[in-house]
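seq as requested:
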Amino acid sequence: MINIFKKFYLVSLDPKPKSLIKKKNVVDEFEKISLKNKINIEGDYSLILNLGKLNKDKIFYIIRRTPGAGMFSNILYVLNHIKIAKKYNFIPIVDMKNFVSIYNDDCISLKEKNSWNYFFKNISKYELEEVYNSHKVIISSNNFYNFFNYHLEDKSFKKLFDENIFFKDYLKRYVESFKNKYFNDNRILGIHFRGTSYKTSAGHPLIPTKDQMFNLTNKILKEDNLDKIFLVTEEESHLKFFIQKFNKRLFYLKSSFRSNKNNAFSIYPRNKHRYKMGGEIIAETILLSKCDSFLFIDTNVSSAVIRINSNKDQKRYKIDNGLNSKNKIIALFKWYIKNYLPTFLGGFKKEPKLILLKNQ
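struct tokens:
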């Protein structure tokens, strides 16, 4: 590694960069920070910079992901890069201020500009301003490498997660308040019912139909002797269906944004919308991890529920409805065709396969 650091290049970095978010209600374009004299090197690193005179005995590793993806995809990405930093004794820090994510919000009342710090405590004791004035700084690539771990629930990530992912106190207080109000002494079935874009996502698990989910929910409520249902879904029609079918047995985060379209990040229907979406999905995920039983398909959220593991006795039911096509064109239609066809012609079964996962 010594040879890599023989030469560093001065980079012009505006100490007061222009807003990375256009002055609209929607963050629809991302303006990256101006970096000159880029050095592309092989391996885990993309940029090596000499920015200032501070901390000459340290090497900082800026983790960037712009525009990024969903909340727990971003966490998974950050953990993989922390792993790289630890391997080479670098000091990691997440920069979602200069390299904005889809959760960056243009609301002037938000004093924090690094969207990572909306929801999480710093992964090191250093602030971005000091880091960018330090002598040796590496800025990560913006790639999700093939050698990265793609599964947050993987045992190898437990220690890394526990030592680096600390939710802000306001989120923990909100979760505890919600739990005390709605969980009480009830036995709860937590359900993550994906919709919208997941119906057409190539290579991803095929989501259950409403009828399938109704049958599975009734079955598990009875078999596990459960009282209430905590539902997490981003699709408005899914929520309305559950309200119709389960009424008073159902509760959910009323504030969470829901739509029948894949437009959560392309519209701005409320103040602090992106900030709120990030906090809401974190709160919902922690609450799902506290339920007595959990019904889901494979997603980054279900992976995070298993990783957080707040209820050591939780029974977990993974729905196996098969996979969507890896062909992006076919994937646009496969779920809808199977939903329309009868079972004997290749349509969905009345009840998909359920896999009971062992809680470790």
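Residues 1-44 have pLDDT under 50 and may be disordered.
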